[in-house]
Every structure is written in C-alpha cells, then in structure tokens.
Amino acid sequence: MRRQLAARHGSGVNDMLKQIMITGFGGQGVVLAGRIVGQAAAIGDKLESTFVQSYGPESRGGACSAQVTIADGPIYFPYIKNPDILVCMSQSGYDKYYTELKPDGVLILEQDLVKPTAPQDHFAIPCTRFAEELGNKMMANIIMIGFVAAITEVVSLESARDTVLASVPKGTEQKNLKAFERGWDYALATLKGRRNKAAGQIGVVA
Amino acid sequence: MTGDEACAEGALAAGCRFFGGYPITPATEIAEHMSKRLPEVGGTFIQMEDEIAAMASILGGAWAGQKSMTATSGPGFSLMMENIGLGVCTETPCVVVNVQRVGPSTGLPTMGAQADMMQARWGSHGDYRIIALAPMSAQEIFFQTITAFNLSERYRTPVFIMTDEIVGHMSEKVIIPPADRIITEWRPKPSGRKDRFLLYKPGKNGVAPMPAAGEGYNVHVTGLTHDEKGYPVMSVEAQEQMMDRLCRKIDDNLDDIIMTEAHHLDDAEVVLVSYGISARTSLAAMQQSRAMGMKVGFLRLITVWPFAQRQIAALAERVKALVTVEINLGQMHLEVTRAAAGKTPCHLVGHAGGTIISPDQVIATIKEVY
Known about the structure:
heterodimer; A: alpha/beta; Pyruvate-ferredoxin Oxidoreductase, domain 3; 18% strand; globular; B: alpha/beta; Rossmann fold; 2 domains; 8-stranded mixed beta sheet; 14 strands
C-alpha cells in the first residue's frame, strides 16, 4: 500500500496541465459544473483531476467558484491563481477574476449576465436564456458545459456527455442531454462563424 | 469522489460496521455517506445527540465486537476528548476522523486548517500515547482509513485521521481495489479457559487479546486505573503498571507505526517537513525550487503521532535548515525543533488558517534560508 502511494505522488512534472475556473452565484450550478468537468476528465478521459470549490454561507445568490485542474500526472496544488480557462456565469465573477486569466487563456461568458469591461477576446453564450427556452433555467450550467467542452476540448465529448447523464437527477437525463447538445452545437456554430470571418478577412485575426 | 466520501468508503472496505456521529462542517459528508452505505452492508449508523455521545457510542460499538468509527471537526473533537481518554485507558480499537477547520471555537467553519495537531496528541487528560495519520489526497484517505483501522485493531487503541477541510471537500479520482486485495486486520481474540481469562494481560506484541461483550468472557471495562483483570485498583503500583503497558505497546513498535515518505533527501541542503494538504504545497515548492537549482528535499509525515523523531534527528545532523509547512501558527514545528535539538535551524511556514499555503510562500522561505 505504501508503495502504491509513493508511485502515485512521487513522479515529477506534468506534460499537460489545464486549470479551469468557473465562477457565478449560488444556485446557478457552478459547483456541479465543476464537478462534472473534473469527473469527466478523471474517469472518462483517464486523466488526473482535482476539483475544489468555494462558496459563502448562503446557498443561493452568494458568489461561488469552482476550480478544476486537469493533468496527465499527479496534481500537487489544487488551487488556481491564473486559469487557462475562465468561465463567468455572473458579472461579479467576471469582475473579480478576468485580470487573472492567462494571456493566452480562453474567456467564456454568460452573454446576457456578463458585460465585459475590457477589450479581451472571448466566447459568449446566452445559456440561461437557452435553458429557459428548454423549459428549466436550472440547466444553464449543463448548456455551459457543452459549450466549454466544444470550445476548449478540455474534456472529450463522450466523457462530458456521459458524466452529465450520470450526474443529473433520474428522469431528467433526456432534458439535460438536450441542454448539453444545445451548448455543444452553439459552440460549433460559434467556431464556424469565427473561421468564416477569418477566411473572409485575410490578415485579420478574428 | 470527495475526500470525505473516500474516507467513508475506506472505512467500509476496512470492515467498519458501526458509525456513531454528529454532523459538523466539514465532516458531515462522512456521516452522510456512512448513513447511506452502512445499511447496505448490514452495518449500523446512529446520529447521536452530540459528539460526547458519539464518541461513547463507538467505544460501545467496539466492545460489542464491531469495527467502529466517528468523524467530526474541531468543536466536536474538543467534546470527544474525555471519551477519547476512556478509549485509550480501556484499550478500545476505534477510528476518529477530524476534518480540521479553523478554530479556536466556531472559527471559520467552511475553511481549512491544521491547528488541532497538538490537541490530537495531548487533548485528553493524563499521560498517554496516540496514533494519528494525515492523508493528503482522496485516494490516500481511502487507504489511510484502512490503515487506521488496522493499526487500531493491532494495538487496541483509538487512531486518529487528522485530515482537513481541503482534502475532505476536494474531489479527485479514487481507485478502489478489489476486496481481496485489501488487507484488513482484526483485534487478537482470546483463547483458552474463559474463567481464567485476563482482560488486559498482554500478548507477545504487548497487546492483550480482546473479546466482545457477550462471548462468555468476564469483561469489566473501566476508566479507573485497573489491573490485568480489568478491575479497579487504586494504587500507585497499578497505575505504573497500566501506564507502562499503554505506553510500551506504542513505544516498542514505532518502526511499525511510523510511516514517512522521503523525496530527494539524499542531496538535500534544505528539507521541508509537512503532512496532509500542506504536503502537496511542499511537493510543488520542492519541485519548483529544484527547477531553480536549489537542492531541496521533502520529508512527508504520513504518521504524525507518534512523531518521527529519529528521522528528523538524523536529518538535522546534515542539512542547512528544516522548514515545517503547516496551516497553523507552529505545532508540529515545535516537535521538529525539539527533535532537531539545535543541530540545525528550524523554520515555520504557516498562518492562522482559512486557506491553503501557497508554494510561493514556501519558496520565499527556502530562498531566505538556503
């Protein structure tokens, strides 16, 4: 047993290490979203992941954040200072963390709830509105997971989808699957739009 | 799964079938998980009226023949102290998990600390020895909970798992091996004539065999100073004999109980000493300072009590400095300093609690003392 532990924690530097921070307010499913991304990476994609969360004493409305680290080897330090991917579901989450994003990091916003104040390149999705259209705004986080997975490829489609299905209440799987696909499809359309724009405007980075 | 859930699963894998507890952040998830899982494996879960009763209940569970556990955090750990002493005195195998949060008193309930380390050692009154382990990941808390049960059964003593809010609430991958790959130990059972049985007559490793109540042996369990029969004897000699046995079963088996993990100690000029979540900070700091060309090593205390005195003393002979990393204002640091006995300077990287220590803080100290 002792040898097993040493082997797990003993080795050195990771070739791949991605740090994802998801911010929002309590009730938006930020913590569940973080858990799903971490679990998809660890169990679906056979990588290592850590997931830590912070939230205030209130269960609804307070600021909260989920921090997921994904790597191909042991992760020593689970907290994130400068994320590779920053997902903001609320304005306060954006205001607090946008300056921390790595220079080449990916910024993803809830389009209707966050108005960026800096000229940073970013992706945006109105996931709360989409969730309402699908019949339940509680699914905004699942739509966001689909969007993040497709934009960043930080977890594979299969792992993310399977983990969503395994994480949602029984009886709501099909609805949540639809929500996940809504986010995924919107991401593909967004990426395609960017490519077309880039192709049409040669020399300009979209 | 979270560290708390992995702890509960480790307990089940170790054969724990009784949990008596009282919910408290950040240990509630252990009780919650046990309440769900124990009935599935034929075990018993009771939510007691408070932590005093919770600790009493697991001592009773152990004497009824079950492997028993409770889990709590600082305030509950304080309440358990008297009955922990009863567990030590009556040589009752059981496991107590402390998912440490910030104190004193109610402190910061949802935030992590490692400031109950001395309480774990000295919290109950009287002289005694204790065993405490400190896991640093969800996977490890699973294995260490099994180890904690094995040690408690082997030495007939309460064993602590001194984890913290960060490990308890962090989610990580946990691989649970097949049951036949997990070694579980049980307390030595008595043999021979039941009417001649002596409850506290030690066997060859210094530990007395232990029957369960109702098996036909005369079982008299008391917190009063007692003789080998278990009957109260109010004398200085009886006290001396009892204490000698209680201490000796730990002191004579330190090599078996103390587990440490060495990282780059061979060429190290500065050695970090840490445990639990701060061990992960230390590993990151060691890696980064090695990348900067500094020869830094790391000694991880897997067993925090009894203290790895011999290992620290040996390091103190040859390193430039020892740096203890822990989320408190200096607790195990005192032990490191004592064991180093002035042979090398000892430094502390710690704070009053509420957040993890960052590798940058550790590296800053390394640079100062290197």
